[in-house]
Amino acid sequence: MSNVVYPSNFRGLAFTVTKTAKFNTIVSTSPAFVESRVVQSQNPNWSWTLRYDVLGNNSRWIAYGESYADLQRLQGFYLARQGRFDSFLFDDPDDDFVGPAMLSAGVPNLQAQLQVVTDGTMYYSPLQRNMGGQFYEDVTDINGGVIVFDNSVLKVNGVDYNIFGPGLAFPGYSSAGMYLKWVSPPTGPVTAQFLFFFRVRFDSDTQDFEKFVQSLFTIGGSEAQDSNSIKLVSARITSL
């Protein structure tokens, strides 16, 4: 498991990026077509399909601040992960932020509200993202700090709460993500804002890099004849 971030400054990424959510449900059907369903995953497994129309392999394709051409950097990143062996962090630019914690005039933003749960002694707030007001997804990797308010009052890490995880479990509740452990019970509502990463791995131990003209390569792009796109999938880690 590594904390390196998937490079985002390649210039050849195609506009179409496919993002897919997947659950793992056991469905058993009787002869009368009565179904029994058992959910096995608390959080969805996400996957991203990335297609690169063009990746250069000469000095013209060295991004600002980099030392190697785009193709070399992407190949190097893939090889350093040893295919699908090593997990890493992915910043989805369309889905990487929870917040803001507060709206104008000091009003808590309930779309950024954290749950408060207790084991009967201590109080906790799992760091999660509220998906359309219908589903809480655990967040395992934070990008930077967390800003927390309790009933519109700013709270301080290390004084009012501490951050632990990933992984919180006690009878009747479990979370696979990071969480706040409160020093004293919060009043509520608890709202927060933070940036986050998805922890992922490559989906395959093989990856095509297809040359279509001198010094230019594609990975499943519009010029591709034989190459497949890059696919990233969620890599849920064992709780610490």
Order of helices and strands: EEEEEHEEEEEEEEEEEEEEEEE
Main sheet record? 9 strands, antiparallel
Question: What's the total number of strands?
Answer: 22
State the shape. globular
Radius of gyration equals: 22 Å
What is the count of distinct domains? 2
Report what the structure shows.
The protein has 240 residues and is mostly beta strands. It has two domains: 18-92 and 199-234, no CATH class; 97-196, no CATH class. The chain is 5% helix and 42% strand. The protein has one helix spanning 70-80; strands at residues 18-22, 25-29, 35-39, 45-50, 52-56, 88-90, 97-98, 113-114, 117-118, 123-126, 128-131, 135-138, 141-150, 153-155, 161-164, 168-170, 173-175, 179-182, 190-202, 210-213, 216-219, 230-234. Strands 1, 4, 6, 7, 8, 13, 14, 19 and 22 form a nine-stranded antiparallel β-sheet that branches. It has a four-stranded antiparallel β-sheet with strand order 9-10-18-15, with no helix packed on it. Strand 11 and strand 12 form a beta hairpin. The radius of gyration is 22 Å and the shape is globular. The two termini are 13 Å apart.
Summarize the structure.
The chain is mainly beta. The chain has one helix at residues 70-80; strands spanning 18-22, 25-29, 35-39, 45-50, 52-56, 88-90, 97-98, 113-114, 117-118, 123-126, 128-131, 135-138, 141-150, 153-155, 161-164, 168-170, 173-175, 179-182, 190-202, 210-213, 216-219, 230-234.
